[in-house]
Amino acid sequence: MKFIIIGLGNFGASLAMKLTAQGNEVIGVDIKLERITTLKEHITHTIAIDASDPVAFTSLPLKNTDVVIVAIGENEGANIMVTALCKEAQVKRLISRAVNNLHEKVLNAIGVSEIVHPEEETAERWSKKLCLSGLIDSFELNSNYSIVEAVVPEKYVGRSIQEIGFREHYDILVLTILKKTERDSLIGKSKIVTTVLHGIPKPDTVLQQGEIIVIYGDNRNIKEFLKR
């Protein structure tokens, strides 16, 4: 996949390097030349421009890019301006960083549906989300093993856990199965609720469309199971 990451501070730089290490094409963009110099040997391409300048912004190769991530954190105004330019350019997929609640409200008003909170979410977690199909969340137990929530892949819908062969083919353990449903609250506003469908699913449990499996295993095996 091809990514453009605008803003190469701690979060943006870390995410850019992790996505590059996973075999993706990554273009890192920042106004500060020293950041570009530091990263040019670690990511696919680097560009030193002020992306909040509409003229400079048009030089970015947006047309063939799968995901644009606005990771600017130290300048909320620049973040919002670049995000607005991305929306105007109708990029395929836009993810933007929010520094605080007000900033997030502004991004929502612009029409951004995917928002990053680096203070709460790590670059490692986001790199997995972006590279693995259907991944919702993950928790690293150590450098080798993780617990992951993922939407049941389409090709496994209607098949049982035993038939799929999680243990035999992938050496992965299915811990439980979840389902997200929409419910009305007491004040009439709908909210998304996660329900546990099976405590510990049995081998003959059949996976259904839209269900979420919680799996445990070696990171390499999980990536093999969920790779795009």
From TrEMBL:
<protein>
    <submittedName>
        <fullName>TrkA family potassium uptake protein</fullName>
    </submittedName>
</protein>
<dbReference type="InterPro" id="IPR050721">
    <property type="entry name" value="Trk_Ktr_HKT_K-transport"/>
</dbReference>
<dbReference type="InterPro" id="IPR006037">
    <property type="entry name" value="RCK_C"/>
</dbReference>
<dbReference type="InterPro" id="IPR036721">
    <property type="entry name" value="RCK_C_sf"/>
</dbReference>
<dbReference type="Pfam" id="PF02080">
    <property type="entry name" value="TrkA_C"/>
</dbReference>
<dbReference type="InterPro" id="IPR036291">
    <property type="entry name" value="NAD(P)-bd_dom_sf"/>
</dbReference>
<dbReference type="InterPro" id="IPR003148">
    <property type="entry name" value="RCK_N"/>
</dbReference>
<feature type="domain" description="RCK N-terminal">
    <location>
        <begin position="1"/>
        <end position="116"/>
    </location>
</feature>
<feature type="domain" description="RCK C-terminal">
    <location>
        <begin position="134"/>
        <end position="228"/>
    </location>
</feature>
<dbReference type="Pfam" id="PF02254">
    <property type="entry name" value="TrkA_N"/>
</dbReference>
